[in-house]
Amino acid sequence: WKSTEKLSTEALKVQWLGVGLTFVGLLVANMPWLPWLGLVTTATGIALRHRGEFLRRAQATPRTLSNEQAVVIARQLRGVPKCAMAVGFLGTDGEAKEYATQIASVLGSSGFAVIRVEGFMVFELQRGLALTVFNSGTNNPSALGLRDAFLAAGLGIRFVINPNRCEPAVELNVHAKGII
Predict the structure, then answer these.
(1) Rounded to 10 degrees, what is the CA torsion of 41, 43, 49, 51?
(2) pLDDT tens column, 78-104
(3) 10 Å Cβ neighbour count for 21?
(4) Which of 79, 124, 139, 152 has the greatest CB tally within 10 Å of its CB?
C-alpha cells in the first residue's frame, strides 16, 4: 500500500471484516475462538487506520528548516573551506523547492557561493537530502563539512560520490519528502 488513502480505505475494510467475524462467532456455538479473532481483526483495522491518518497528516506538513537547525548548520560551517555549489530540488515538487530555497539561504549566509538553485528530473524517485561530490572522492573537505553540519542539525543526508567532472563540484539535492 503506497498511498495513505488506500491504507485508510483498506483498514476500514479490515475493521468491518472483524466486526462481521465477531458477529458470526457469537451466533456459531461450536467456534468459541471466532469472536476473539473478530476482535483482534477489528483492533488491527483500527490501528492501521490510525497509522494511515498519521501518515496523511505527516505528508501534508511541509519540511522547514527551523531556526535552531539553521544556527547549528551555520555554526558547524564556520571552519569549513567554502566553495561554489549548487542546490537542486525535485522539479515538480513545490514543497522541495521551498525547502531547497531555505537551505540555499543558510548556505549562502554561511559563506558558500550558491551559484544556482534549480529543479531537476529523476528517473528513480528518491527521498530526503543528498550531497553529491563530483570528481573528488571522499576527501573533499567542503563536502565533508557540509555533511557533518547537516547531521549535527539532526537532518539525515546521503553522501554520494560521482566520478564525472561537473561544475560546481558540490551539489546538495532536496528530493521528495520521506515517509515517516
Answers:
(1) -120
(2) 999 999 999 999 888 888 899 999 999
(3) 20
(4) 152
Cβ contacts of 29 within 8 Å, gap of 6 or more: none
State pLDDT tens for residues 124-164: 778 889 998 887 777 889 999 999 999 999 999 999 888 88
In angstroms, the Cα distances linking 19 to 33, 70, 74 are 14, 50, 55
Query: Any alpha helices (H) in 61-159, and if so which ranges?
Result: 67-76, 94-109, 141-152
Residue 47 has pLDDT above 80, yes or no: yes
Summary mean pLDDT of the chain: 88
Residue whose C-alpha is closest to residue 107's, from 157, 162, 160, 60: 157
Q: Looking up cell 505527516, which residue turns up? A: 58
Question: Distance between CA atoms of 101 and 88, rounded to whole angstroms?
Answer: 9
Give the chain's radius of gyration (CA, Å).
24
Pairing of strands 129-134, 157-162: parallel
